[in-house]
Write a structure and sequence with these properties.
The chain is mainly α. The chain contains seven helices and three strands. It has helices spanning 24-31, 36-45, 61-79, 83-91, 95-101, 108-118, 121-132, and strands at 21-23, 51-53, 56-60.
């Protein structure tokens, strides 16, 4: 069996191996599981490796990213005609273009907040003065 050697020279504190790991409890919270056995079987089913370091269990963040990316691509391709352009906007983190492409509606909370301000007493008085002039 060939042994993999990990280079640790010239690493800054922000790019260590621990930054690339996800603790099993964090993954449980992220995916909405409450039982450790359920998340372990989910990882096994989706070919996400688990390994133990001392008393904690970890997986590699890239495996989770790949899984989520695949699910997102399947969803976008199934629900949108312009899937390639939408996926490109997601990858480029172009939120403005993405909202145009998927016809994102205005958030109801924002809409309600905006209406409330427009119907305030000061706005009503101002509009009445404009109408009277």
């Amino acid at each position: 069996m060939e042994r993999l050697e990990i280079k640790t020279e010239n690493q800054t504190p922000g790019d260590g191996l621990m930054d690339k790991l996800v603790e099993l409890n964090e993954l449980m919270e992220l995916l909405g599981y409450t039982d450790i056995r359920s998340i372990e079987s989910w990882c096994k089913k989706n070919k996400v490796p688990l390994f133990h370091v001392s008393k904690k269990t970890y997986t590699i963040r890239n495996f989770i990213d790949i899984f989520v990316t695949q699910k997102m691509e399947i969803y976008v391709r199934a629900n949108y005609k312009n899937a390639y352009v939408i996926l490109k906007a997601i990858n480029e983190d172009n939120k403005t273009e993405l909202s145009k492409l998927v016809n994102a509606p205005l958030d109801k909370k924002v809409e309600a907040k905006f209406k409330k301000r427009a119907d305030s007493n000061v706005a009503s008085d101002f509009m009445n003065k404009l109408k009277a002039a």
